[in-house]
Amino acid sequence: MADGFILTIARCVPLLAALVGSSTLAQERIGTTSQPLSVQRASVWPSAQIGVCWENPGNNATERGWVRAAVQRTWEAASAVRFTGWGTCASGTRGIRIQIIDNHSHTEGLGSRLDGKANGMQLNFTFKNFSKSCQSTRQYCIEAIATHEFGHALGLAHEHNRSDRFDCAEAHQGTEPDYFVTPYDTTSIMNYCNPTWNGGGNLSDLDRLGVNVLYGKGTAPVPGSSPETVSYKTFNLEQFETMFVAPNGSLGLVWKVNNSWWKGPVSLSGPGLLPQGAHISMVSYPPNNQLEAFYAASDGAVHVTYKAKNGAWSNPIRLTPPNTVRPGGDLSAVFYPLNNQLEVLFIGSNGALNVLWKAQNGSWNGPAALSGPGQAPSGAGITATYYPLNNQLEVMFAGNDGGIGLAWKAQNGRWNGPFGIAPPRQMPAGGRITLQYYPLNNQFEAFFVDNSGRVNVLWKAQNGRWNGPAAITGPGTGVPGGSIVASFYPLNNQLEVATVGPNGAVNLTWKAQNGRWNGPVALSNAGAATPGSPLAMRYQTMSNQLEIFYTDPGGLLNLIFKAQNGAWNRPFRL
Ligand SMILES: [Zn+2]
Hints:
Layout: H1 17-20, H2 23-26, E1 49-54, H3 61-78, E2 82-88, E3 96-100, E4 106-107, E5 121-123, H4 138-153, H5 205-215, E6 225-234, E7 237-245, E8 251-257, E9 263-267, E10 280-285, E11 290-296, E12 302-308, E13 317-318, E14 332-336, E15 341-347, E16 353-359, E17 365-369, E18 382-387, E19 392-398, E20 404-410, E21 416-422, E22 434-438, E23 443-449, E24 455-461, E25 467-471, E26 484-489, E27 494-500, E28 506-512, E29 518-522, E30 536-540, E31 545-551, E32 557-563, E33 572-573
Parallel strand pairs: 1-2, 1-3, 3-5
Antiparallel strand pairs: 4-5, 6-7, 7-8, 8-9, 10-11, 11-12, 12-13, 14-15, 15-16, 16-17, 18-19, 19-20, 20-21, 22-23, 23-24, 24-25, 26-27, 27-28, 28-29, 30-31, 31-32, 32-33
Helix pairs in contact: 3-4
Bound molecules: zinc ion.
Protein backbone atom coordinates (compact mmCIF):
# COMPACT_ATOMS: atom_id res chain seq x y z
CA MET A 1 0.00 0.00 0.00
CA ALA A 2 1.34 3.24 -0.93
CA ASP A 3 1.00 6.52 0.74
CA GLY A 4 -1.77 8.37 -0.91
CA PHE A 5 -4.60 7.67 -3.16
CA ILE A 6 -4.55 9.29 -6.40
CA LEU A 7 -7.24 11.36 -7.20
CA THR A 8 -8.58 13.04 -10.00
CA ILE A 9 -11.81 11.78 -11.14
CA ALA A 10 -14.35 14.29 -11.77
CA ARG A 11 -17.52 12.60 -12.71
CA CYS A 12 -18.52 9.30 -11.52
CA VAL A 13 -21.57 7.24 -11.66
CA PRO A 14 -21.54 5.07 -8.66
CA LEU A 15 -21.38 1.46 -9.55
CA LEU A 16 -24.81 1.07 -10.90
CA ALA A 17 -23.69 -1.34 -13.55
CA ALA A 18 -24.42 -4.45 -11.60
CA LEU A 19 -27.84 -3.24 -10.68
CA VAL A 20 -29.13 -1.82 -13.89
CA GLY A 21 -26.83 -3.23 -16.50
CA SER A 22 -23.88 -1.63 -18.12
CA SER A 23 -25.67 0.76 -20.42
CA THR A 24 -25.77 3.58 -17.91
CA LEU A 25 -22.06 3.38 -17.33
CA ALA A 26 -21.24 3.02 -20.95
CA GLN A 27 -22.95 6.29 -21.64
CA GLU A 28 -21.24 8.07 -18.82
CA ARG A 29 -19.21 11.03 -19.82
CA ILE A 30 -15.97 11.41 -18.04
CA GLY A 31 -15.01 14.91 -17.19
CA THR A 32 -11.31 14.52 -17.49
CA THR A 33 -10.56 17.31 -19.86
CA SER A 34 -10.83 20.02 -17.28
CA GLN A 35 -9.19 17.98 -14.58
CA PRO A 36 -5.58 18.00 -13.55
CA LEU A 37 -3.82 14.84 -14.60
CA SER A 38 -2.18 13.99 -11.35
CA VAL A 39 -3.17 15.47 -8.08
CA GLN A 40 -2.39 12.81 -5.57
CA ARG A 41 -1.63 14.03 -2.12
CA ALA A 42 -2.70 17.53 -2.98
CA SER A 43 -6.29 16.32 -2.93
CA VAL A 44 -6.10 14.86 0.55
CA TRP A 45 -7.63 17.33 2.97
CA PRO A 46 -5.10 18.83 5.37
CA SER A 47 -7.40 18.17 8.32
CA ALA A 48 -9.60 15.22 9.22
CA GLN A 49 -12.38 17.70 10.08
CA ILE A 50 -14.19 18.44 6.83
CA GLY A 51 -17.17 20.76 6.53
CA VAL A 52 -20.35 19.73 4.71
CA CYS A 53 -23.36 21.83 3.74
CA TRP A 54 -26.51 21.45 1.63
CA GLU A 55 -27.10 23.83 -1.24
CA ASN A 56 -30.84 23.09 -1.42
CA PRO A 57 -31.89 21.04 1.62
CA GLY A 58 -35.60 21.26 0.79
CA ASN A 59 -38.02 18.91 2.48
CA ASN A 60 -35.55 16.08 2.51
CA ALA A 61 -34.67 15.77 6.19
CA THR A 62 -35.16 12.00 6.11
CA GLU A 63 -32.91 11.47 3.09
CA ARG A 64 -30.29 13.88 4.41
CA GLY A 65 -30.30 11.92 7.64
CA TRP A 66 -29.66 8.71 5.69
CA VAL A 67 -26.65 10.28 4.02
CA ARG A 68 -25.20 11.58 7.26
CA ALA A 69 -25.73 8.27 9.06
CA ALA A 70 -24.16 6.34 6.18
CA VAL A 71 -20.92 8.30 6.27
CA GLN A 72 -20.83 8.10 10.07
CA ARG A 73 -21.22 4.34 9.92
CA THR A 74 -18.48 3.97 7.30
CA TRP A 75 -15.73 6.57 6.80
CA GLU A 76 -16.05 8.19 10.22
CA ALA A 77 -16.22 4.90 12.13
CA ALA A 78 -13.12 3.67 10.34
CA SER A 79 -10.93 6.70 10.83
CA ALA A 80 -10.42 10.06 12.47
CA VAL A 81 -12.40 11.73 9.66
CA ARG A 82 -15.28 13.86 10.91
CA PHE A 83 -17.72 15.55 8.56
CA THR A 84 -19.00 18.63 10.35
CA GLY A 85 -21.68 21.25 9.85
CA TRP A 86 -24.42 19.75 7.62
CA GLY A 87 -26.40 23.00 7.63
CA THR A 88 -27.58 25.05 4.68
CA CYS A 89 -24.78 26.47 2.55
CA ALA A 90 -24.20 30.20 2.70
CA SER A 91 -22.26 32.04 0.07
CA GLY A 92 -18.66 31.38 0.85
CA THR A 93 -19.25 28.25 2.97
CA ARG A 94 -16.15 26.10 2.73
CA GLY A 95 -15.99 22.35 2.51
CA ILE A 96 -18.23 20.01 0.53
CA ARG A 97 -21.33 21.68 -0.93
CA ILE A 98 -24.01 19.12 -1.80
CA GLN A 99 -26.74 19.74 -4.34
CA ILE A 100 -29.79 17.47 -4.31
CA ILE A 101 -30.71 16.83 -7.93
CA ASP A 102 -32.24 14.03 -9.98
CA ASN A 103 -29.05 13.51 -11.92
CA HIS A 104 -26.33 10.91 -12.00
CA SER A 105 -24.73 11.27 -8.59
CA HIS A 106 -21.13 12.40 -8.78
CA THR A 107 -18.53 14.79 -7.49
CA GLU A 108 -16.98 17.64 -9.43
CA GLY A 109 -13.48 16.67 -8.42
CA LEU A 110 -11.70 14.80 -5.71
CA GLY A 111 -10.92 15.60 -2.11
CA SER A 112 -9.96 19.12 -1.20
CA ARG A 113 -10.61 20.27 -4.77
CA LEU A 114 -14.25 20.32 -3.68
CA ASP A 115 -13.50 22.85 -0.96
CA GLY A 116 -16.14 25.55 -1.34
CA LYS A 117 -17.03 24.44 -4.87
CA ALA A 118 -20.68 25.19 -5.70
CA ASN A 119 -22.65 21.96 -6.25
CA GLY A 120 -19.38 20.07 -5.75
CA MET A 121 -21.23 16.88 -4.84
CA GLN A 122 -24.54 16.03 -6.48
CA LEU A 123 -26.76 13.38 -4.91
CA ASN A 124 -29.95 11.91 -6.32
CA PHE A 125 -32.77 11.32 -3.82
CA THR A 126 -35.67 10.56 -6.19
CA PHE A 127 -34.33 8.53 -9.14
CA LYS A 128 -37.19 9.59 -11.40
CA ASN A 129 -34.88 10.45 -14.28
CA PHE A 130 -31.66 8.64 -13.51
CA SER A 131 -31.13 5.17 -12.07
CA LYS A 132 -34.82 4.46 -12.04
CA SER A 133 -34.26 0.99 -10.69
CA CYS A 134 -33.36 2.62 -7.38
CA GLN A 135 -36.95 3.76 -6.85
CA SER A 136 -37.80 0.45 -5.23
CA THR A 137 -34.73 0.52 -2.94
CA ARG A 138 -34.38 4.20 -2.41
CA GLN A 139 -32.82 4.25 1.05
CA TYR A 140 -30.32 1.54 0.14
CA CYS A 141 -29.30 3.36 -3.04
CA ILE A 142 -29.03 6.75 -1.36
CA GLU A 143 -26.83 5.39 1.42
CA ALA A 144 -24.59 3.23 -0.74
CA ILE A 145 -24.12 5.93 -3.40
CA ALA A 146 -23.45 8.62 -0.79
CA THR A 147 -20.77 6.45 0.82
CA HIS A 148 -19.07 6.04 -2.56
CA GLU A 149 -19.31 9.76 -3.35
CA PHE A 150 -17.92 10.69 0.05
CA GLY A 151 -15.02 8.39 -0.81
CA HIS A 152 -14.32 10.70 -3.74
CA ALA A 153 -14.79 13.67 -1.43
CA LEU A 154 -12.02 12.20 0.74
CA GLY A 155 -9.76 12.11 -2.31
CA LEU A 156 -10.21 8.49 -3.41
CA ALA A 157 -10.11 7.66 -7.10
CA HIS A 158 -11.81 4.67 -8.66
CA GLU A 159 -10.05 1.54 -7.56
CA HIS A 160 -10.63 -0.15 -10.95
CA ASN A 161 -8.53 2.58 -12.59
CA ARG A 162 -5.38 1.22 -11.03
CA SER A 163 -2.59 -0.02 -13.26
CA ASP A 164 -2.13 -3.08 -11.05
CA ARG A 165 -5.76 -4.21 -11.17
CA PHE A 166 -6.59 -7.75 -12.18
CA ASP A 167 -9.75 -9.69 -13.02
CA CYS A 168 -11.50 -6.47 -13.90
CA ALA A 169 -12.58 -5.25 -17.31
CA GLU A 170 -14.51 -2.12 -16.37
CA ALA A 171 -13.67 0.95 -18.39
CA HIS A 172 -11.48 3.38 -16.55
CA GLN A 173 -13.18 6.52 -15.37
CA GLY A 174 -11.26 9.69 -14.88
CA THR A 175 -7.59 10.31 -14.62
CA GLU A 176 -5.38 7.36 -13.84
CA PRO A 177 -4.10 7.01 -10.30
CA ASP A 178 -0.37 6.84 -9.87
CA TYR A 179 -0.11 6.58 -6.15
CA PHE A 180 -1.62 3.68 -4.20
CA VAL A 181 -2.45 3.57 -0.52
CA THR A 182 -3.29 -0.11 -0.22
CA PRO A 183 -2.86 -3.19 -2.40
CA TYR A 184 -5.39 -3.49 -5.21
CA ASP A 185 -8.79 -4.28 -3.74
CA THR A 186 -11.59 -5.85 -5.73
CA THR A 187 -13.96 -5.38 -2.81
CA SER A 188 -13.37 -1.64 -2.40
CA ILE A 189 -16.47 0.52 -2.41
CA MET A 190 -14.55 2.57 -4.99
CA ASN A 191 -14.28 -0.38 -7.42
CA TYR A 192 -16.82 -0.92 -10.19
CA CYS A 193 -15.63 -4.54 -10.34
CA ASN A 194 -16.77 -5.19 -6.80
CA PRO A 195 -18.93 -8.32 -7.10
CA THR A 196 -21.38 -6.66 -4.72
CA TRP A 197 -22.82 -3.48 -6.16
CA ASN A 198 -21.18 -0.54 -4.41
CA GLY A 199 -19.92 -2.95 -1.76
CA GLY A 200 -23.48 -3.12 -0.47
CA GLY A 201 -22.78 0.30 1.00
CA ASN A 202 -20.03 -1.12 3.20
CA LEU A 203 -16.32 -0.39 3.28
CA SER A 204 -13.88 -3.21 2.66
CA ASP A 205 -11.08 -3.93 5.10
CA LEU A 206 -8.66 -2.13 2.85
CA ASP A 207 -11.00 0.86 2.48
CA ARG A 208 -10.94 1.15 6.25
CA LEU A 209 -7.20 0.77 6.38
CA GLY A 210 -6.65 3.27 3.58
CA VAL A 211 -8.72 6.01 5.17
CA ASN A 212 -6.87 5.33 8.42
CA VAL A 213 -3.56 5.89 6.73
CA LEU A 214 -4.73 9.07 5.04
CA TYR A 215 -6.61 10.69 7.90
CA GLY A 216 -5.55 8.95 11.10
CA LYS A 217 -6.92 6.15 13.16
CA GLY A 218 -10.46 5.81 14.35
CA THR A 219 -11.42 5.34 17.94
CA ALA A 220 -12.34 1.70 17.43
CA PRO A 221 -9.67 -0.28 19.28
CA VAL A 222 -7.56 -2.95 17.69
CA PRO A 223 -9.24 -6.07 19.00
CA GLY A 224 -7.82 -8.30 21.65
CA SER A 225 -4.84 -10.50 21.93
CA SER A 226 -1.63 -8.45 21.53
CA PRO A 227 0.52 -11.48 22.16
CA GLU A 228 3.90 -11.47 23.80
CA THR A 229 5.88 -14.61 24.39
CA VAL A 230 9.06 -15.74 26.07
CA SER A 231 11.04 -18.92 26.54
CA TYR A 232 11.37 -19.60 30.27
CA LYS A 233 13.95 -22.16 31.34
CA THR A 234 13.33 -23.57 34.73
CA PHE A 235 15.15 -26.54 36.25
CA ASN A 236 15.44 -28.95 33.33
CA LEU A 237 12.30 -27.71 31.62
CA GLU A 238 11.84 -25.30 28.80
CA GLN A 239 8.54 -23.53 29.07
CA PHE A 240 7.09 -21.36 26.39
CA GLU A 241 4.78 -18.77 27.84
CA THR A 242 2.56 -16.44 25.86
CA MET A 243 0.49 -13.66 27.31
CA PHE A 244 -2.31 -11.79 25.59
CA VAL A 245 -5.19 -9.42 26.22
CA ALA A 246 -8.43 -11.36 26.57
CA PRO A 247 -11.62 -9.95 25.05
CA ASN A 248 -12.75 -8.83 28.52
CA GLY A 249 -9.52 -6.92 29.13
CA SER A 250 -7.95 -9.41 31.51
CA LEU A 251 -4.36 -10.60 31.20
CA GLY A 252 -4.45 -14.06 29.61
CA LEU A 253 -1.80 -16.79 29.53
CA VAL A 254 -1.19 -19.95 27.53
CA TRP A 255 1.92 -22.08 27.98
CA LYS A 256 3.55 -25.34 27.05
CA VAL A 257 6.23 -27.42 28.75
CA ASN A 258 9.00 -29.15 26.79
CA ASN A 259 7.15 -28.55 23.57
CA SER A 260 4.10 -30.59 24.55
CA TRP A 261 0.63 -29.30 23.72
CA TRP A 262 -0.45 -25.83 24.79
CA LYS A 263 -2.20 -25.41 28.13
CA GLY A 264 -4.63 -22.75 29.18
CA PRO A 265 -5.76 -20.13 28.65
CA VAL A 266 -5.97 -18.84 32.19
CA SER A 267 -6.61 -15.31 33.41
CA LEU A 268 -3.95 -13.65 35.56
CA SER A 269 -6.16 -10.69 36.45
CA GLY A 270 -9.72 -9.53 36.68
CA PRO A 271 -11.47 -8.03 33.66
CA GLY A 272 -10.75 -4.49 32.51
CA LEU A 273 -7.11 -4.42 33.55
CA LEU A 274 -5.94 -3.77 30.00
CA PRO A 275 -7.41 -1.87 27.06
CA GLN A 276 -7.90 -3.83 23.85
CA GLY A 277 -4.72 -4.05 21.82
CA ALA A 278 -2.49 -3.22 24.80
CA HIS A 279 1.17 -4.08 24.48
CA ILE A 280 2.86 -6.52 26.85
CA SER A 281 6.60 -6.91 27.34
CA MET A 282 7.88 -10.15 28.92
CA VAL A 283 11.39 -10.93 30.07
CA SER A 284 13.20 -13.70 31.90
CA TYR A 285 15.09 -12.31 34.87
CA PRO A 286 17.80 -14.75 35.99
CA PRO A 287 18.11 -13.70 39.65
CA ASN A 288 15.64 -15.86 41.54
CA ASN A 289 14.63 -17.36 38.18
CA GLN A 290 11.84 -14.89 37.65
CA LEU A 291 9.58 -14.36 34.67
CA GLU A 292 8.14 -10.85 34.52
CA ALA A 293 5.54 -9.17 32.31
CA PHE A 294 5.06 -5.41 32.04
CA TYR A 295 2.18 -3.43 30.60
CA ALA A 296 0.52 0.00 30.72
CA ALA A 297 -2.86 -0.76 32.28
CA SER A 298 -6.17 1.00 31.69
CA ASP A 299 -5.30 3.54 34.41
CA GLY A 300 -2.11 4.59 32.64
CA ALA A 301 0.14 3.05 35.31
CA VAL A 302 2.94 0.65 34.42
CA HIS A 303 2.23 -2.71 36.08
CA VAL A 304 4.12 -5.95 36.49
CA THR A 305 2.88 -9.52 36.83
CA TYR A 306 5.62 -12.03 37.73
CA LYS A 307 6.47 -15.43 39.10
CA ALA A 308 9.62 -16.79 40.77
CA LYS A 309 11.06 -20.29 40.44
CA ASN A 310 8.06 -21.31 38.39
CA GLY A 311 5.75 -20.73 41.35
CA ALA A 312 2.39 -19.02 41.34
CA TRP A 313 1.86 -15.85 39.34
CA SER A 314 1.54 -12.63 41.31
CA ASN A 315 -1.43 -10.35 41.10
CA PRO A 316 -0.86 -7.22 38.98
CA ILE A 317 1.42 -4.82 40.84
CA ARG A 318 1.42 -1.10 40.09
CA LEU A 319 4.93 0.32 39.61
CA THR A 320 4.06 3.94 38.82
CA PRO A 321 1.27 6.43 39.51
CA PRO A 322 -1.72 6.45 37.17
CA ASN A 323 -1.49 8.46 33.93
CA THR A 324 2.23 7.87 33.62
CA VAL A 325 1.83 6.53 30.09
CA ARG A 326 -0.92 6.06 27.52
CA PRO A 327 -3.06 3.08 28.55
CA GLY A 328 -2.02 0.07 26.50
CA GLY A 329 1.02 1.90 25.12
CA ASP A 330 4.24 0.17 24.25
CA LEU A 331 7.10 -0.46 26.65
CA SER A 332 10.22 -2.57 26.45
CA ALA A 333 11.64 -4.62 29.32
CA VAL A 334 15.20 -5.90 29.09
CA PHE A 335 17.62 -7.80 31.29
CA TYR A 336 20.92 -5.95 31.60
CA PRO A 337 23.57 -8.30 32.99
CA LEU A 338 25.71 -5.71 34.76
CA ASN A 339 24.58 -5.48 38.34
CA ASN A 340 21.74 -7.86 37.42
CA GLN A 341 19.53 -5.01 36.35
CA LEU A 342 16.06 -5.21 34.91
CA GLU A 343 15.08 -2.08 33.00
CA VAL A 344 11.75 -1.02 31.53
CA LEU A 345 11.81 1.77 28.95
CA PHE A 346 8.78 3.71 27.74
CA ILE A 347 7.69 7.11 26.42
CA GLY A 348 5.76 8.80 29.22
CA SER A 349 2.64 10.93 29.03
CA ASN A 350 4.66 14.12 28.49
CA GLY A 351 6.61 12.54 25.65
CA ALA A 352 9.85 12.01 27.57
CA LEU A 353 11.85 8.79 27.45
CA ASN A 354 11.50 7.12 30.86
CA VAL A 355 13.10 4.19 32.64
CA LEU A 356 12.06 2.02 35.58
CA TRP A 357 14.74 -0.28 36.95
CA LYS A 358 15.81 -2.59 39.72
CA ALA A 359 19.22 -4.08 40.55
CA GLN A 360 19.98 -7.44 42.21
CA ASN A 361 16.24 -8.04 42.42
CA GLY A 362 15.87 -5.21 44.90
CA SER A 363 13.07 -2.68 44.96
CA TRP A 364 11.98 -0.80 41.86
CA ASN A 365 13.37 2.66 41.11
CA GLY A 366 11.92 5.41 38.96
CA PRO A 367 10.34 6.23 36.69
CA ALA A 368 13.15 8.61 35.79
CA ALA A 369 13.15 10.76 32.66
CA LEU A 370 16.13 10.19 30.38
CA SER A 371 15.19 13.06 28.08
CA GLY A 372 13.20 16.24 27.92
CA PRO A 373 9.49 16.10 27.08
CA GLY A 374 8.04 16.01 23.61
CA GLN A 375 10.28 13.35 22.08
CA ALA A 376 7.53 11.02 20.90
CA PRO A 377 3.84 10.27 21.47
CA SER A 378 3.04 8.73 24.85
CA GLY A 379 3.27 4.96 24.63
CA ALA A 380 5.14 5.15 21.32
CA GLY A 381 6.68 2.01 19.88
CA ILE A 382 9.96 1.37 21.67
CA THR A 383 12.63 -1.34 21.75
CA ALA A 384 15.44 -1.79 24.26
CA THR A 385 18.05 -4.48 23.67
CA TYR A 386 21.37 -5.53 25.16
CA TYR A 387 24.42 -5.31 22.89
CA PRO A 388 27.30 -7.39 24.23
CA LEU A 389 30.17 -5.26 22.92
CA ASN A 390 31.10 -2.75 25.56
CA ASN A 391 28.11 -3.96 27.61
CA GLN A 392 25.77 -1.53 25.95
CA LEU A 393 22.06 -1.12 26.47
CA GLU A 394 20.39 0.62 23.56
CA VAL A 395 16.87 1.90 23.08
CA MET A 396 15.13 3.14 19.93
CA PHE A 397 11.78 4.76 19.31
CA ALA A 398 9.97 6.60 16.50
CA GLY A 399 9.87 10.26 17.46
CA ASN A 400 7.28 12.96 16.90
CA ASP A 401 8.98 13.88 13.63
CA GLY A 402 8.70 10.34 12.24
CA GLY A 403 12.47 9.91 12.60
CA ILE A 404 14.18 7.44 14.88
CA GLY A 405 15.64 8.32 18.25
CA LEU A 406 18.45 6.34 19.89
CA ALA A 407 19.66 6.45 23.50
CA TRP A 408 22.24 4.16 25.07
CA LYS A 409 24.57 3.52 27.95
CA ALA A 410 27.82 1.55 28.14
CA GLN A 411 29.28 -0.31 31.14
CA ASN A 412 26.22 0.77 33.11
CA GLY A 413 27.37 4.40 32.97
CA ARG A 414 25.31 7.45 32.16
CA TRP A 415 22.63 7.39 29.50
CA ASN A 416 23.47 9.18 26.27
CA GLY A 417 21.02 10.74 23.84
CA PRO A 418 18.45 10.45 22.57
CA PHE A 419 19.86 11.36 19.19
CA GLY A 420 18.16 11.16 15.82
CA ILE A 421 19.73 8.41 13.72
CA ALA A 422 17.42 8.60 10.73
CA PRO A 423 15.94 11.56 8.87
CA PRO A 424 12.43 12.67 9.84
CA ARG A 425 9.26 11.39 8.18
CA GLN A 426 10.47 7.81 7.83
CA MET A 427 7.40 6.42 9.51
CA PRO A 428 4.34 7.52 11.51
CA ALA A 429 5.21 9.19 14.82
CA GLY A 430 5.31 6.59 17.57
CA GLY A 431 5.30 3.65 15.15
CA ARG A 432 6.76 0.29 16.03
CA ILE A 433 10.42 -0.63 15.85
CA THR A 434 12.39 -3.69 16.91
CA LEU A 435 16.10 -4.02 17.67
CA GLN A 436 17.86 -7.39 17.44
CA TYR A 437 21.40 -8.61 18.08
CA TYR A 438 22.80 -10.75 15.25
CA PRO A 439 25.94 -12.60 16.33
CA LEU A 440 27.61 -12.73 12.92
CA ASN A 441 29.94 -9.78 12.68
CA ASN A 442 28.50 -8.57 15.99
CA GLN A 443 25.72 -6.80 14.18
CA PHE A 444 22.91 -4.86 15.78
CA GLU A 445 19.90 -4.46 13.50
CA ALA A 446 16.72 -2.44 13.88
CA PHE A 447 13.62 -2.89 11.74
CA PHE A 448 10.55 -0.77 11.08
CA VAL A 449 7.88 -0.36 8.40
CA ASP A 450 8.24 2.96 6.59
CA ASN A 451 5.57 5.26 5.21
CA SER A 452 5.37 3.21 2.02
CA GLY A 453 4.91 -0.06 3.87
CA ARG A 454 8.48 -1.22 3.16
CA VAL A 455 10.46 -3.04 5.82
CA ASN A 456 13.59 -0.98 6.58
CA VAL A 457 16.76 -1.89 8.42
CA LEU A 458 19.25 0.22 10.37
CA TRP A 459 22.40 -1.62 11.39
CA LYS A 460 25.88 -1.41 12.81
CA ALA A 461 28.71 -3.95 12.91
CA GLN A 462 31.45 -4.33 15.55
CA ASN A 463 29.95 -1.40 17.40
CA GLY A 464 30.81 0.95 14.55
CA ARG A 465 28.56 3.66 13.23
CA TRP A 466 24.91 3.12 12.38
CA ASN A 467 24.03 2.59 8.73
CA GLY A 468 20.74 2.99 6.89
CA PRO A 469 17.86 3.07 6.93
CA ALA A 470 17.62 0.88 3.84
CA ALA A 471 14.50 -0.79 2.50
CA ILE A 472 14.73 -4.59 2.34
CA THR A 473 11.29 -5.16 0.80
CA GLY A 474 9.00 -3.42 -1.63
CA PRO A 475 6.01 -1.27 -0.65
CA GLY A 476 2.96 -2.81 0.96
CA THR A 477 4.82 -5.48 2.94
CA GLY A 478 3.63 -4.00 6.22
CA VAL A 479 1.41 -1.28 7.61
CA PRO A 480 3.37 1.97 8.04
CA GLY A 481 4.59 2.04 11.63
CA GLY A 482 2.81 -1.24 12.30
CA SER A 483 3.95 -4.16 14.36
CA ILE A 484 7.24 -5.76 13.42
CA VAL A 485 9.28 -8.44 15.17
CA ALA A 486 12.72 -9.94 14.56
CA SER A 487 14.48 -13.02 15.88
CA PHE A 488 17.84 -14.70 15.49
CA TYR A 489 17.39 -18.31 14.42
CA PRO A 490 20.58 -20.30 15.10
CA LEU A 491 20.13 -22.89 12.35
CA ASN A 492 21.92 -21.57 9.32
CA ASN A 493 22.52 -18.32 11.24
CA GLN A 494 19.28 -16.81 10.08
CA LEU A 495 17.78 -13.47 11.02
CA GLU A 496 14.04 -13.42 10.48
CA VAL A 497 11.68 -10.45 10.42
CA ALA A 498 7.88 -10.68 10.44
CA THR A 499 5.18 -8.09 9.96
CA VAL A 500 1.50 -8.04 9.01
CA GLY A 501 0.67 -6.62 5.61
CA PRO A 502 -2.18 -4.21 4.96
CA ASN A 503 -4.08 -7.17 3.53
CA GLY A 504 -3.80 -9.04 6.84
CA ALA A 505 -1.20 -11.59 5.71
CA VAL A 506 1.77 -12.39 7.97
CA ASN A 507 4.83 -11.57 5.86
CA LEU A 508 8.34 -12.89 6.52
CA THR A 509 11.70 -11.53 5.37
CA TRP A 510 14.98 -13.26 6.27
CA LYS A 511 18.67 -13.65 5.59
CA ALA A 512 21.05 -16.55 6.20
CA GLN A 513 24.80 -16.40 6.99
CA ASN A 514 24.56 -12.61 6.83
CA GLY A 515 23.86 -12.81 3.09
CA ARG A 516 21.20 -11.10 1.04
CA TRP A 517 17.70 -10.46 2.32
CA ASN A 518 15.06 -12.84 0.99
CA GLY A 519 11.31 -12.52 0.68
CA PRO A 520 8.93 -11.31 1.69
CA VAL A 521 6.81 -14.44 1.65
CA ALA A 522 3.32 -14.68 3.08
CA LEU A 523 3.03 -17.27 5.86
CA SER A 524 -0.74 -16.95 6.02
CA ASN A 525 -3.66 -16.09 3.84
CA ALA A 526 -4.71 -12.48 3.45
CA GLY A 527 -7.08 -11.48 6.21
CA ALA A 528 -5.62 -13.94 8.72
CA ALA A 529 -4.28 -11.24 11.02
CA THR A 530 -5.40 -7.80 12.08
CA PRO A 531 -3.23 -5.33 10.10
CA GLY A 532 -0.91 -3.40 12.38
CA SER A 533 -1.76 -5.38 15.49
CA PRO A 534 1.04 -6.59 17.75
CA LEU A 535 3.00 -9.71 16.83
CA ALA A 536 5.37 -11.87 18.84
CA MET A 537 8.17 -14.12 17.59
CA ARG A 538 10.49 -16.32 19.65
CA TYR A 539 13.00 -19.08 19.18
CA GLN A 540 12.48 -22.28 21.12
CA THR A 541 15.49 -24.53 21.69
CA MET A 542 13.53 -27.74 21.55
CA SER A 543 13.08 -28.91 17.97
CA ASN A 544 14.71 -25.66 16.96
CA GLN A 545 11.34 -24.09 16.57
CA LEU A 546 10.61 -20.53 15.60
CA GLU A 547 7.12 -19.42 16.55
CA ILE A 548 5.11 -16.40 15.47
CA PHE A 549 2.00 -15.33 17.35
CA TYR A 550 -0.57 -12.96 15.92
CA THR A 551 -4.07 -11.66 16.51
CA ASP A 552 -6.84 -12.55 14.10
CA PRO A 553 -9.66 -10.12 13.25
CA GLY A 554 -11.79 -11.77 15.93
CA GLY A 555 -9.23 -10.77 18.55
CA LEU A 556 -8.05 -14.34 19.11
CA LEU A 557 -4.52 -15.70 19.37
CA ASN A 558 -3.00 -17.68 16.48
CA LEU A 559 0.33 -19.40 15.93
CA ILE A 560 2.57 -20.18 12.96
CA PHE A 561 5.80 -22.13 13.46
CA LYS A 562 8.57 -24.07 11.82
CA ALA A 563 10.79 -26.80 13.27
CA GLN A 564 14.38 -27.71 12.29
CA ASN A 565 14.26 -24.94 9.71
CA GLY A 566 11.72 -26.87 7.66
CA ALA A 567 8.62 -25.51 6.02
CA TRP A 568 6.36 -23.19 7.98
CA ASN A 569 3.19 -24.81 9.29
CA ARG A 570 -0.15 -23.38 8.38
CA PRO A 571 -1.47 -21.01 11.05
CA PHE A 572 -3.75 -22.38 13.72
CA ARG A 573 -5.74 -20.85 16.53
CA LEU A 574 -4.61 -21.48 20.08
ZN1 LIG B 1 -17.24 7.12 -8.48
